[in-house]
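Quick one, probably user error.
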């Protein structure tokens, strides 16, 4: 189990998110013509003369939702100032869920569908969400990858600079204080999380658990800490605390494959085998790195006495590891 825990520790924040798009600042933004969910055709060229904030996002992702909410708040502050917001999802994304998000959060800007992913390709989208600020001449001014802690400050500053309300020096002054005043709670949570991983790697599970608890206390919304803590409790056969940790992680991110895998493992410890199998099968179906999910399914079927099914799951888990597909979907060392 320790190997499986540590095999989860190599992926989350090492994805390429240094740049949002492949187009550099100063290049002309590729034109596009997309259809909104209301059936209206919208082109970038229609927005000439306005500063455009284009956000390419996806459903089922917390940071995309946070970006949309931030953009909506900022839009209110620039009302009547020639600022146009446009959000885009891929054609194969969940349109109904996207519309539901817009309705529940009262988002007041177009929702466009990139049916053939042409915009995705033309802009070279590298991370979700990607926020692109286009100036009034149709030139890419700035881009923000993902949803960093400084997202609102950066977006507000970039829009002001694009509108000519502040100069380069004022923009630097706007951004620099925020960089110097990073969320100390988040930094401490990350430090403790990484320390807990080191203790786990050394087999010092009591220290790992205590440190992971401190990480959760420092930043309760940091999902990685809850998941790591849950797997540590699983290793200690503490089903109740494991269930609590994984359920909290799922509250923070209902789509977390790792949290659902851990929840299935905790239910196995509790003896709720049928429920565990249901959750684990659902997680395995959509998890790109399901080796641990298959392992837990193997245990569940073994306890049910379904030997063939158990062997099948164990084989799938082993194949994933042999193929070196041991990267998880959430646990990793943080920066």
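Nope, works fine. Designed sequence:
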């Amino acid at each position: 189990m320790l190997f499986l825990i540590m095999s989860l520790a190599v992926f989350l924040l090492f994805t390429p998110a240094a740049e949002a798009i492949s187009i550099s600042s100063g290049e002309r933004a590729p034109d596009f013509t997309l259809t909104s969910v209301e059936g209206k055709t919208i082109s970038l060229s229609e927005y000439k003369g306005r500063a455009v904030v284009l956000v390419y996002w996806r459903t089922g992702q917390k940071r995309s939702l946070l970006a949309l909410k931030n953009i909506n708040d900022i839009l209110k502050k620039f009302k009547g100032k020639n600022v146009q917001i446009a959000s885009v999802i891929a054609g194969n994304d969940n349109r109904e869920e996207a519309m539901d998000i817009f309705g529940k959060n009262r988002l007041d800007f177009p929702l466009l569908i990139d049916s053939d992913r042409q915009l995705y390709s033309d802009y070279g989208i590298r991370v979700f969400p990607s926020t692109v600020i286009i100036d009034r001449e149709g030139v890419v001014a700035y881009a923000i990858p993902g949803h960093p802690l400084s997202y609102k400050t950066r977006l507000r500053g970039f829009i002001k600079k694009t509108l000519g309300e502040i100069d380069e020096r004022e923009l630097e002054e706007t951004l620099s204080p925020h960089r110097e005043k990073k969320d100390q709670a988040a930094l401490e949570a990350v430090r403790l999380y990484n320390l807990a991983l080191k203790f786990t790697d050394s087999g010092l599970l009591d220290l790992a658990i205590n440190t992971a608890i401190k990480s959760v206390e420092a930043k309760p919304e940091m999902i990685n800490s809850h998941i790591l803590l849950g797997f540590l409790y699983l290793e200690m056969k503490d089903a109740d605390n494991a269930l609590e940790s994984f359920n909290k992680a799922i509250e923070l991110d209902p789509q977390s494959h790792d949290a659902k895998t851990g929840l299935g493992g905790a239910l196995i410890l509790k003896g709720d085998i049928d429920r565990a199998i249901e959750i684990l099968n659902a997680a395995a179906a959509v998890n790109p790195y399901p080796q641990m999910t298959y392992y837990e399914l193997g245990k569940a079927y073994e306890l049910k006495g379904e030997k063939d099914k158990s062997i099948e799951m164990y084989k799938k888990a082993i194949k994933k590891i042999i193929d070196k597909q041991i990267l998880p979907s959430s646990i990793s060392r943080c920066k």
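Residues 6-18, 324-330 have pLDDT under 50 and may be disordered.
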